[in-house]
Amino acid sequence: MAPTLSKVNEVSDKTFDYVIIGGGVGGCTLASRLSENSDVTVLLLEAGKAHIGDPLVDLPTGFFRQYGVPDYDWGFQTIPQKKLDGKVITWNRGKGLGGSSNINYMVWTRPGRVEVDAWERLGNPGWNYDSLIKYVKKAENFQMPPNDIIERELLAIDPEGFGKDGPLSLTYSHFSTGVEVTARKAMEVRGIPHLTDPENGNYSGAWSAPATVNPLTLTRCSAFVGYILPNLGRKNLFVLTEAYSSRILLEDSKSEPVTAKGVEFIHEGKTYSVKAAKEVIVSAGSLKSPQILELSGIGDTNVLCPLGINVKVDLPGVGTNLQEHISSFTFTAELEDDAPLMTLDMLSDPALLQKHTEYYEQKLPGLLSYQASGTSYLSLQYISEKADEIIAKHEKTLAALPSGTSPGIREQFKIQLDHLKHKDMPDCEIITNPVFTGSINKAEPGKRYISFLLATIAAWSRGTAHITSTDPLRNSAFDPNYLDHDLDLDILIEAFKFARGNIDYEPLKSYVFKEVNPGSTISTDEEIKDHIKENLNTFWHTSSTCSMLPREHGGVVDPSLKVYGTSNIRVCDLSVIPLIVGVHTQGV
Ligand SMILES: Cc1cc2nc3c(=O)[nH]c(=O)nc-3n(C[C@H](O)[C@H](O)[C@H](O)COP(=O)(O)OP(=O)(O)OC[C@H]3O[C@@H](n4cnc5c(N)ncnc54)[C@H](O)[C@@H]3O)c2cc1C
Q1: Which of 2, 45, 193, 407, CA to CA, is 20 to 30 A from 449?
Q2: Which domain holds residue 359?
């Protein structure tokens, strides 16, 4: 059946049991699951376009061309960052059905047992690793890669570890550049174990990650493609695109709980509304969900009153506890001309681009269907001689937190400190990329490069996302408060030194000609620190702005994801996790 989306006149002023705001990972998953019950009606309102069959979305390497293009990417910006000399960082986010799963790197990772169990420790009964993993498996439709890939990449996959009947196609890259496995071997020589089962609750080590790609078509499997596209024929599922929700409409009430009666949205410049018979679910992502609550009168009085918004639920946690993985593309080396490795740099050769385009058209794996896969999650204790010193310094900082620090944040830091001290809990991620990155020295035509991206995996700084205007089309002020805690930078400095050292170990050593970025001018800790700050970026995993925590600890939703003080509003997206996990977040 040809996919059909709703038209505005088919939904405006109508009543649906569930109205979901935002058709990204959370929204698509939920709309599909709720509409399995044919007795209820579900409306999904998405601000962006449908992008059905769009080559920029489908092609695994197409995401590079989506960044900065308003039809695909919200292109949010932070406010100037104090600790980055006023620098503003762009936060790409997917716009359109599929949300950020249209523009992400597709890497599929599962969180660790200890970090998910921490959500339960923070006051959320039932939110633990075992219960989460059941649902993660339910999402997966895992397919083995071909044998030659298993041999070349030295994969030891237990297919039983993955789900097989879910909607999200999942496989390992069907194309081997040789770069990732070479870097992994070099790390093994340095004592970092090659982990063969990172899906089992402990992901510390160096390993190869699968991705949400359909192995038959070699196309991206977004949350929309997996969850909604096959179900668009359902009579009870309605999807309206280019419908930007401005606020939740609440029944008049003098006291809690308040009840949502519908949603207001803007479509082609006009304002419309729909009615909700049962619930309104906000799934607009960590950056937009708090905005919708605040514009509806649910949030901190200190934020809402100055803007003249009538406070319906005083909920100071909305838009706070913002957590981020920080990344830095900081190390690149040039490969020897005869190194038997392939890199994305080769696509700048028109003849090779043509060849790989033909492969892709024939559904054969090649550089255009490349999937990022080479990752390593490393504990400070494994990569740095300064680990004890850094941990002790940080322990001291946490013991002397400012008196105004809320009990909720204190409890989170206590858990994070336990993780930091645990030598088998990783503290950073180093991703191997077969491509040039960096800005000090430029790429030379015809050369190939390996680079390492560094990222923190715990967030020690806390930020906010609050509205500054009653205009729904104006973005909130996004303040991640980058580097508010020294530890984020301390970890990245050690990660940088470790990554730089990789090229001194075989087999990588023989294939590397020379370091290109940053180069020999950056060597002391102080220089490395400045270099990282200069190149500091988001890792696009912003979370926790509508945290699931006890209300008195800054919580916005309870363990059933219902917004405190309301009878029928829930939040379902990355904004609810109270403590960010170390892995990539689409599977959470
Ligand atoms: C560039 C990038 C790379 C990433 N790489 C990876 C990766 O390799 N692996 C991984 O696991 N994770 C990755 N992630 C993270 C992952 O994609 C997110 O964790 C996930 O998409 C979050 O899901 P969500 O539902 O919270 O938000 P989203 O998926 O962002 O969905 C939010 C949706 O709400 C819509 N919306 C917003 N405001 C409104 C409104 N007012 N009205 C209606 N609709 C609205 C948006 O258009 C969007 O469709 C990446 C993210 C980005 C941005």
Answers
A1: 193
A2: 55-228+323-576
